[in-house]
Amino acid sequence: MSSKRESSMSICDGFVGAIGNTPLIRLPRLSEETGCEILGKAEFMNPGGSVKDRAALAIVQAAERSGELRPGGTVVEGTAGNTGIGLAHICNARGYRCVIVIPETQSQEKIDLLRTLGAEVHAVPAAPYRDPGNYQKVAGRMAAEMDNAVWANQFDNTANRLGHYRTTGPEVWAQTGGRVDAFVAATGTGGTLAGVSRALKERSPDTRIYLADPSGSALYNFVRDGEPAPTAGNSITEGIGSSRVTANLQGTDIDDAFCISDAESVPMVYRLLREEGLFLGSSSGVNVCGAVRAAEELGPGHTVVTILCDGGGRYYSRLFNEAWLAERGLA
Ligand code: PMP
To answer: Is a pLDDT exceeding 50 seen at residue 5?
Structure first.
């Protein structure tokens, strides 16, 4: 029996008590096709709707423990959306104010949801990391100027990966009964990949860890050649891909990487919807494409685990909008 079913039959303590212990879902069609067990960790079932609830909770708890975040305080973050949504829920549940800086390029659904949750949202023009106007840098400066405020700093605050090391990784290990040959994930902050891979490699050093990187991100080249450098093209995916190696990703033992184009991941999102019954966002498409590639590399009989990061409902205006896709040659 999955731990989710066990936990859903007991009582969770508030919003934060319902974070984690997500089901591990076998994808029957893709498993049949590859001859491997393709398993997706259903992170879209977290109460805030994404894998980022775990990082948000780990960061808030670490700031509370260190005394940096005190009652009535403010949590400030620069986020592509999901971390902000997790933080906004947690702040409501814990009595903190939440201030979110988000690049204007992110989906309107996520911005609307953040405002509905009561977060103070500042949408800023998209700017590269080296630019002082970059959303992460703006968030850091805003927090420094406020009283009793912390900057969550999900990219470089290693409480993020520690949360996955303590929860997501051990859950995958327990749910597979220790039979996990490979773990595959795209990274935004790197927290999920770093934390899960460390937990799995500690238990079984032979577990293969693969990065699934969207085109245009610099991390595929980092894993392959040791130097972050963008690959050709760009991607419509949100929340994943990076131009730099974050503190969370640093030191992670990654065996290999796949570069996944939108032309590969977008059809996978639709296959997951129509053939597997799962309505998911674009990063889940990249992750499952990566899991299939890992299965093909390892050959039949292996168990490959990946992350189903968030639900499709956050992407109606883009990924699930035919005209929007057609404009980008992806319909
Ligand atoms: N998928 C989605 C939809 C996300 O929002 C994020 C986080 N930005 C990720 C994947 C990547 O997770 P992580 O930050 O742990 O690398």
So the answer is: no
